[in-house]
Write a structure and sequence with these properties.
The structure holds two protein chains of two kinds.
Chain A (H helix, E strand, L loop, with lengths): L1 H12 L9 H14 L3 H14 L4 H18 L4 H15 L5 H10 L5 H14 L1 H10 L5 H17 L1 H10 L3 H7 L6 H15 L3 H9 L2 H12 L6 H14 L3 H9 L2 H14 L6 H18 L5 H13 L2 H10 L5 H15 L3 H9 L1 E2 L5 E2 H9 L6 H15 L3 H9 L13 H9 L4 H13 L5 H8 L2 E2 L8 E2 H10 L4 H15 L3 H9 L3 H10 L5 H19 L10 H12 L1 H13 L1 H8 L15 H18 L1 H6 L6 H60 L18 H65 L5 H57 L8 H60 L3 H49 L13 H18 L1
Antiparallel strand pairs in A: 1-2, 3-4
Helix pairs in contact in A: 1-3, 2-3, 2-4, 3-5, 4-5, 5-9, 8-9, 9-10, 9-12, 12-15, 14-15, 15-18, 16-19, 17-20, 18-21, 20-21, 21-24, 23-24, 23-26, 24-27, 26-27, 27-30, 29-30, 30-33, 32-33, 33-34, 33-35, 33-37, 34-35, 35-37, 36-37, 40-42, 40-43, 41-42, 41-43, 42-43
Chain B lengths: L4 E9 L5 H10 L12 E10 L2 E10 L6 H5 L7 E7 L3 H5 L1 H13 L2 H4 L4 H4 L5 E7 L11 H11 L2 E4 L8 H18 L11 E3 L16 H5 L5
Parallel strand pairs in B: 1-3, 1-4, 4-5, 5-6
Antiparallel strand pairs in B: 1-7, 2-3
Classes of the chains: A mainly alpha, B alpha/beta.
């Protein structure tokens, strides 16, 4: 700024020639010159002069020349010098600060408005045209320093004056933020540093812009700059970087997540490890820088943030060593108090509610002699009234955070108070707290009481343990209980701050603990003290708070009274309140608490915001307790009031209820979220269950199929492939093939069954024929006998004829029986051959099936079940195959038998023919009739044979069928990837290859 | 938490197509049937593995509403991958794809040209890998946009295509990972300049400049070239 000031002063210093024209005239002339001149040189001179006047005659230049200057930016953009003058003029016009030379002039001419308001007004005029801002952003593309630098300054001015407007405009300019971010990489540090200020203004209170800057690698840029500048020792630039980074993170959960996910927390660690190593001491700038660095950490783990984010950040912080770095800063010597205070607060937020971090904190030792736990060292400074107040506050907050949701820690602290562990040589937390409680310093009392109350929060066990704490007040006197001692302090009429502390401790102690209430009521002075104070009539604000606290304590005695104390049962206490205090007074006094400003403040945040001892009143945890029990307390003590009080609603009550509603709302939202997540889990489980059920169904279906196949049942389910199996396509394929195979097997089975039936039938026919043949034989014997009888009657007469007849019969048999039989036999032999072939095929198939079952290894555990199923299927197939084979063997056997039968038949026929011939020869004359009958018999026989032949053909067809089935079966096996050698179905090879290829692919994929 | 590469993604598309649900399913593996309208932009992150390399995905889930369009445009530049989502049960979300694509192509490179003068390959940069996603594939009964139409659109505009369901998680993982794979392949081919932040790619801390100088002189030096005219 000085640079410009000197420049303008030089320009102003040159005396104007001729008479002195007024400022207005000059500005007018210059505007005219810039607008109308055709020469660039002239326009440039005009702009230069305008710039020179823009400070002293700021109003004139701003009011009249703004449009002209904007036109210059548009029209003469390529001349960097004139652009420079124009922008510089605008910078001066919109500057938020007041110029000394302007003040003189302003008083003379206008007596006018404040310059800061002026700057804002001009900013408003300039910003009204969105194109102007776009123009400026586009000017940033120019690399020339003369253009870029003033543009950054102008934009910063505009942002300072009207942040909201500018932010909105820049947000919608395409790549607006990107261009600004690019300036951070500018090699000229002046531009880079001013850009930091510009971005800080830009991101102030605008979540969207904060996110975009983060997206544009903002964190990376900033960390680079901080590193380049030397971290905390890096001067004001580091501070600017940290301010900007804080802007990006504060109240912006999305950016916080991004910060965590981008592993930037890890980079924070180096912030705190390096400053300790440096030799430079603690300059003011360094203190500021470290202060901002600590702020940065706190922003990430602030209790106000979403619990989930805080927890994950805390985890990362302890993992990456940031917590360790912070604690070593805490323990380092020579650290300025405010930094130490900040560090304690930061460590507090880092350990708050995180069990692992709390444990780490417990184990931390201070580098003192002898080494003591860090907690003890910190408590020592808390109860030391020589220490700075803010530091003591920070320690109390640290202690609170250490005990927050930490039952182990609470137990440890209470343990140090109990008699059996008291070791005189060691300073313990308990000792320090007790000494604080009874020290003459009221602030120490308050701190110690609040600290003790935190070891009891939401922890019924410790409330009981604490009752056993005994104290020795002075040498020789008998020990008194802690609670008794507290009462004594109260009665001693000490400072109000001490009483606040003790009353809050007692309230926390008695709440939700009937045992503690009982013990409290046995202290004889307790109830009288409380009733006296509640009914007291002092109007000092702090005293009223004290009365309220007493009322609350009395209320707790009623609410959590188990009736074990006969003199002060719930009812008698209620009566006491009504009689001695009055129900309305009681609830009024109670209500006083929530009406105070201190209460609202303390309830807002767990951090202690007090800057001085007088601001200490309430503790955050106590406020939480009070809020949750106030209403039920009033109801418990004054049931008659609870109903009537609804007619009159005080604003404080409204806010109270609002608070309650808000709390409940938050709880409901939390519950709802939980519910939603549970529901999601449930639906997921349902889905899984359905999947499992479907799988089970599929398995049982397959099982049924297998069972059906095993039982050679005719009703085989068509296929199992219909069962959906979305998860595994390969599984689908397999089950498809399996289904086919099984159905094929079933048909094959059926065929076999039919064949067996046919064979049985055949056999039966054979048997019939056999019996008929026997009958024929018998008849022939009969005829023979007849012939023998006839022979006696006539011997010569029928010789010729019978000879003729015999010839005929023989001829007939020769022509008919013999070739037919031969055919039949041949066919049978063929059949036999075919059966044999088939048999060997089946043998092969059997082998391959067994190979398949061996060769298909379990591809992976997931498909294990499926593979097992395949194996089972294969075994099944194997069993069926062997069955088939057996069937075939029996079939062959049958056919052999049948063949033998046919042979027998043939021989029988031959013998019968021979016998018939002999008979005809014997009968001679009367044989004609016998011959005829024999002839008809023979014809019948012929017919029978025909039948036989046909049946054989049927059998042949069946065998062929079976053969084709076997071929199909073989093909299926090929589909499994098995090599089945057969020369008969070459024509199907193409298809088979495809199938096996697909299978191989599947296998590869699995492996 | 070390990684070989870091990719920046954006998720874009009409309002209500399930962008936030896709992100939630990918990062948290859960589905929220009722989801608030996204305000501006939300952030999510997850680690994946490609080619045995750890890759960190940083994902910016943008608001689909027209009112936020100007804000979300700021995220196009600086993203290596975009997931362009439509709803298969709402035809109009499909019809708007062209607009989205124009927007993405326009804003992902407008500044790039100036930034990267002298680096011709980057000149007409639309290296951004865009994955077209037809979401809600579980609602097949209410389908209004055929799968084939999506495929055709993707083919025509050079996008990768997938149909997903944020509800059943079908293809969600694949959509994000396939996009990353595409980017990874482009890096291997040398199409992406990994040292230019504006490309939305960062090399992990332990993988620092092994192949520096391979892609000429990008970034900072490029900016200076602008002043010479």
């Amino acid at each position: 700024m000085d640079y410009f000031r000197s420049v303008t002063q030089t320009v102003l210093g040159t005396p104007q020639p001729g008479h002195q024209p007024t400022g207005a005239e000059t500005v007018e002339r210059l505007i005219d010159r810039v607008q109308s001149s055709t020469l660039l040189e002239d326009r440039r001179d005009g702009c230069r002069a305008l710039k020179a006047m823009s400070r002293k005659y700021r109003v004139l230049v701003g009011a009249h020349a703004m449009d002209t200057l904007t036109q210059v930016l548009e029209a003469d953009r390529n001349d960097h010098e004139i652009v420079n003058y124009a922008i510089e003029s605008l910078v001066n016009v919109t500057g938020p600060e007041e110029y000394p030379e302007e003040a003189e002039e302003g008083e003379e001419a206008l007596g006018g408005p404040q310059s800061s308001a002026l700057g804002e007004q001009f900013t408003e005029i300039f910003t009204k045209r969105r194109e102007n801002i776009e123009l400026l952003i586009n000017l940033l593309d120019e690399f020339d320093f003369k253009v870029r630098y003033p543009t950054v300054k102008l934009l910063t001015n505009l942002l300072k004056n009207r942040p909201k407007d500018l932010q909105e405009v820049i947000l919608v300019i395409p790549s607006g933020v990107s261009k600004l971010m690019d300036l951070l990489s500018d090699s000229r540090e002046v531009i880079r540093n001013d850009t930091l200020l510009l971005l800080t203004q830009l991101t102030k209170n605008n979540t969207n812009l904060q996110k975009i800057v983060a997206f544009e690698n903002g964190y990376d840029h900033l960390f680079e700059i901080i590193k380049g500048e030397g971290y905390a020792d890096g001067g004001v630039v580091v501070e600017d970087c940290l301010t900007l980074m804080l802007n990006l993170l504060r109240n912006n959960p999305s950016n916080q997540t991004f910060f965590k996910e981008g592993s930037y927390i890890q980079r924070l660690t180096s912030f705190f490890t390096l400053p300790l190593d440096s030799e430079e001491g603690w300059s003011a700038q360094k203190v500021t820088n470290i202060h901002y660095m600590l702020q940065l950490v706190r922003t990430l783990v602030a209790p106000q943030n979403a619990a989930q984010t805080v927890t994950s950040c805390q985890k990362v912080m302890s993992q990456c060593g940031l917590l360790q770095a912070l604690t070593s800063l805490l323990m380092a010597s020579g650290v300025p108090v405010d930094i130490l205070t900040d560090t304690i607060s930061t460590v507090s937020d880092t350990i708050r509610g995180s069990h692992a971090n709390q444990e780490f904190f417990t184990s931390m030792m201070a580098p003192s002699t002898p080494p003591r736990p860090a907690i003890v060292t910190l408590l020592m400074s808390m109860v030391n009234d020589k220490q700075p107040f803010i530091l003591r506050c920070a320690v109390l907050y640290c202690f609170q955070c250490f005990l927050y949701r930490n039952q182990t820690g609470q137990a440890q602290i209470v343990q140090t108070l109990l008699p059996q562990t008291a070791d005189a040589s060691l300073v313990t937390a308990g000792q320090l707290l007790c000494s604080g409680l009874f020290s003459p310093d009221p602030v120490s009392n308050w701190f110690a009481a609040v600290a003790l109350s935190h070891s009891l929060v939401d922890n019924a066990t410790q409330k009981e343990h604490m009752l056993r704490v005994q104290l020795t007040t002075s040498v020789g006197s008998p020990p008194v209980s802690l609670m008794q001692q507290c009462m004594s302090i109260l009665q001693a009429g000490t400072k109000v701050l001490t009483r606040f502390g003790i009353l809050m401790l007692l309230s926390t102690w008695l709440a939700h603990s009937p045992v503690a209430v009982h013990t409290f009521l046995t202290i004889s002075s307790a109830v009288p003290y409380l009733t006296t104070h509640v009914s007291a009539n002092e109007h000092d604000e702090l005293e009223m708070v004290c009365q309220g606290l007493c009322a609350f304590l009395l209320g707790l005695c009623v609410q959590f009274n188990d009736g074990s104390n006969t003199s002060f049962s719930g009812d008698s206490l209620r009566q006491l309140v009504t009689d001695r205090i009055g129900a309305e007074t009681f609830s009024d006094k109670l209500g006083n608490i929530s009406r105070t400003e201190a209460y609202t403040k303390a309830a807002k945040s767990p951090q202690l915001l007090a800057k001085q001892p007088s601001e200490l009143v309430f503790d955050h945890e106590f406020c939480r307790l009070f809020k949750s029990l106030e209403v039920s307390c009033v109801r418990a003590v004054t049931p008659q009031l609870a109903g009537s009080s609804s007619t009159e609603v005080t604003p404080a009550e409204v806010t109270k209820y609002k608070d309650i509603i808000r709390d409940q709302d938050a709880e409901i939202t939390q519950m709802r979220e939980k519910f939603a997540s549970f529901e999601a889990t449930l639906s997921q489980m349902h889905k899984e269950k359905e999947n499992l059920a479907a799988e089970l169904q599929q398995l049982s279906d397959e099982n049924t199929v297998l069972k059906a196949q095993q039982g050679i049942s005719v009703k085989v389910p068509e296929s199992t492939s219909d069962v959906p199996n979305a998860s595994d396509e390969r599984g689908d394929n397999e089950s498809d093939t399996k289904g086919q195979v099984s159905s094929d097997l079933a048909t094959l089975q059926q065929q076999l069954l039919e064949m067996t039936h046919a064979r049985d039938y055949y056999y039966y026919e054979m048997y019939k024929k056999d019996t008929e043949l026997t009958a024929l034989q018998q008849q022939q014997q009969q005829s023979q006998e007849q012939e023998q009888v006839q022979q006696v009657v006539s011997t010569n007469e029928a010789k010729v004829e019978s000879q003729q007849g015999r010839q005929n019969a023989a001829d007939f048999f020769d022509s008919l029986s013999n070739p037919e039989m031969e055919n039949l036999r041949k066919q049978l032999e063929d059949l036999q051959l075919v059966l044999y072939n088939k048999d060997s095929e089946i043998q092969q198939l059997k082998d391959t099936v067994s190979q398949t079952s061996v060769l298909t290894p379990p591809p992976d555990s997931q498909n294990g079940i499926q593979v097992k199923k395949i194996c089972e299927e294969n075994n099944e197939a194997y069993g069926i195959n062997s069955l088939l084979e057996e069937e075939n063997a029996t079939l062959r056997q049958q056919i052999k038998e049948y063949e033998i039968h046919v042979k027998q038949l043939q021989t029988q026929l031959e013998t019968s023919a021979a016998m018939a011939a002999a008979a005809t020869a014997a009968t001679m004359t009367k044989g004609t009739s016998a011959d005829a009958s024999a002839l008809s018999r023979c014809k019948h026989l012929e017919y029978e044979l025909d039948c036989l032949k046909r049946e054989q053909e049927d059998l042949l067809v069946l065998v062929t069928d079976q053969e084709s089935k076997v071929a199909e079966y073989r093909r299926k096996l090929r589909a499994y990837g098995e090599e089945v050698t057969d020369d008969e179905d070459d024509d199907e090879d193409g298809e088979n290859f495809n199938l096996s290829d697909a299978y191989d692919d599947d296998l590869d994929e699995l492996q | 938490m070390s990684y070989a590469y870091l990719f920046k993604y954006i998720i874009i598309g009409d309002t209500g197509v399930g962008k936030s649900c896709l992100l939630l399913q990918f990062t948290d593996k859960r589905f929220q049937p009722v989801h608030d309208l996204t305000i501006g932009v939300e952030f999510g992150a997850r680690m994946i593995t490609i080619d045995n390399k750890q890759i960190k995905l940083q994902i910016w889930d943008t608001a689909g509403q027209e009112a936020f369009r100007s804000i979300t445009r700021s995220y196009y530049r600086g993203a290596a991958g975009a997931l362009l989502v439509y709803d298969i049960t709402r035809r109009e979300t499909f019809n708007h794809l062209t607009q989205w694509l124009e927007d993405a192509r326009q804003h992902s490179n407008s500044n790039m040209v100036i930034m990267l003068i002298g680096n011709k390959r980057q000149h007409s940069n639309s290296n951004m890998v865009i994955m077209l996603i037809g979401n809600k594939s579980d609602l097949d009964s209410r389908r209004e946009v055929k799968r084939e139409e999506g495929e055709a659109f993707a083919r025509e505009h050079g996008l990768v295509f997938m149909e997903t369901s944020a509800k059943t998680a079908a293809n969600v993982e694949e959509a994000f990972i396939n996009t990353a794979r595409e980017i990874y392949e482009k890096i291997q081919e040398g199409v992406f300049d990994v040292h230019n932040e504006a490309n939305g790619i960062k090399i992990g801390p332990q993988h620092s400049p092994s192949g520096a100088g391979l892609t000429g002189n990008p970034g900072a030096a490029g900016g200076q070239g602008g002043g010479c005219c």
